């Protein structure tokens, strides 16, 4: 980890909850906001760590959020893209990290002291609504993940995962179909939907002609309707 000092106005504006905030209010946060840079695969925080009372947001890179069961099995809860918040208990809760956060690639994280944030919220209450909306979406996603792991077939969970990242990160059209903007390697998909690496490979073989998987996690969906139909069988 490398501490870079105060953030800039432009960096604060990269967090979705601040994009509509007045310049003067954002400027008041600069002396209370700090930048930290992490290398690829560096641990940002461990599950169970006590974390300082700060808002945490990702400015650049990508974070992996994972939990470890008592038997040692790891599950990737979600991937955090730039502009999003994480580590909710640091602001609302007991200050204990609920999961391990890993920097998948070189990443830059912005933190803001809780007291400074509360002062700005008192002037712009809509910020608190934005924060609550973000964490409410996370709770809903966690609920859907748990429900899926308990009651849905692995193929259904895989299809829903591809649809989720397509909606969140988007796709772009190439000559083979819709290419997901985010790369999802086999191991990452397997840990996200609670299956083994080998089972994940077998599922993609069953989707041959509908989904193309390329080395490194590049995924191309050739027919979304057929993919959705498989999950309904």
TrEMBL record:
<dbReference type="GO" id="GO:0003677">
    <property type="term" value="F:DNA binding"/>
</dbReference>
<dbReference type="InterPro" id="IPR018490">
    <property type="entry name" value="cNMP-bd_dom_sf"/>
</dbReference>
<dbReference type="InterPro" id="IPR014710">
    <property type="entry name" value="RmlC-like_jellyroll"/>
</dbReference>
<dbReference type="InterPro" id="IPR050397">
    <property type="entry name" value="Env_Response_Regulators"/>
</dbReference>
<dbReference type="InterPro" id="IPR000595">
    <property type="entry name" value="cNMP-bd_dom"/>
</dbReference>
<feature type="domain" description="Cyclic nucleotide-binding">
    <location>
        <begin position="17"/>
        <end position="138"/>
    </location>
</feature>
<dbReference type="Pfam" id="PF00027">
    <property type="entry name" value="cNMP_binding"/>
</dbReference>
<dbReference type="InterPro" id="IPR036388">
    <property type="entry name" value="WH-like_DNA-bd_sf"/>
</dbReference>
<dbReference type="Pfam" id="PF13545">
    <property type="entry name" value="HTH_Crp_2"/>
</dbReference>
<dbReference type="InterPro" id="IPR012318">
    <property type="entry name" value="HTH_CRP"/>
</dbReference>
<keyword id="KW-0805">Transcription regulation</keyword>
<keyword id="KW-0238">DNA-binding</keyword>
<dbReference type="GO" id="GO:0003700">
    <property type="term" value="F:DNA-binding transcription factor activity"/>
</dbReference>
<protein>
    <submittedName>
        <fullName>Cyclic nucleotide-binding domain (cNMP-BD) protein</fullName>
    </submittedName>
</protein>
<keyword id="KW-0804">Transcription</keyword>
<dbReference type="GO" id="GO:0005829">
    <property type="term" value="C:cytosol"/>
</dbReference>
<dbReference type="InterPro" id="IPR036390">
    <property type="entry name" value="WH_DNA-bd_sf"/>
</dbReference>
